[in-house]
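WARN no homologs supplied; continuing
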Amino acid sequence: MEYRQLGASGLKVPALSFGAGTFGGRGELFGAWGNTDVAEARRLVDVAIEAGVTMFDTADVYSGGASEEVLGQAIKGRRDKVLISTKAGLPTDDTPHGAGTSRPRLIRTVDDALRRLGTDHIDLFQLHAFDAATPVEEVLSTLGDLVASGKLRYVGVSNFSGWHLMKSLAAADRHGYPRYVAHQVYYSLIGRDYEWELMPLGLDQGVGALVWSPLGWGRLTGRIRRGRPLPEGSRLHRTAAYGPPVDDERLYAVVDVLDELAEETGRSVPQIALNWLLSRPTVASVIVGARNEEQLRENLGAVGWSLTPGQVARLDAASTVTAAYPYYPYRSQEGFARVNPPIERLIHQR
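OK structure emitted
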């Protein structure tokens, strides 16, 4: 397993991390993801650690906290061998402080997460969404107190826009608060919007990407192809409305190339899709989930090898889309590119 620096921090994380969203299995959305109990979770953690996957990602909203509880039990007795990444900020109840990242809610949610996880510290704590109702200075000062207390080691965010993140980083620099070193983002061959603004921001500001749903909300598993009905067991039957949308024809075009490369390389479609992500700038770790040991072992096969530049170019061509304004001029017009190099040039300079 390759280990990478997480943004501009001293923390090294595995190129693949394990997403514990399948642990617990409560509710319509997370029940469709999986219902891994403690015994099965221990086995999956065994397999992951043996392969060098030492970071485990969860959140307080995953199965109403059950994911954190199951993960805590699964790593019991080996806390010193793993990194815990969790998130908070999305609504968990209807009380006045049941959502967001105000000072009282952050303090409470961190204490609740520590209790559920059975640990005295969280290695990486991320805000699950931007809270427009709370001043960024209040959020950052609270996180600073929690870091100083030893409850948190590093802080990051998830699902922020460019201005959300840059405003927060500027406030952190201005007041001496802890800087966000990670941004947990949606990024895949069929979801490349991250490249338009957030990737250049991450390169400039030292914010590493942790990628969620790298298989496009289950669409790049190799089971979905043109002219075939959705497989009976696909979680998309129950969860498609929750995930990022994708144009069917674009999906099929990407899958066609993935099929070609699978035949050329002897690798599976998911392994190729994951390996492509691992070559992208700012990507520190790709979070993979698994409902069973077979899925986990297949995902682990995404590391230890590389696609050729020509194969990467074919995937790029099949998956690229025209960026929205104001980003597209920097891709398509030479005058802009001379003063602001397109992300493709940054990729090749990495």
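The longest helix spans residues 248-265.
OK
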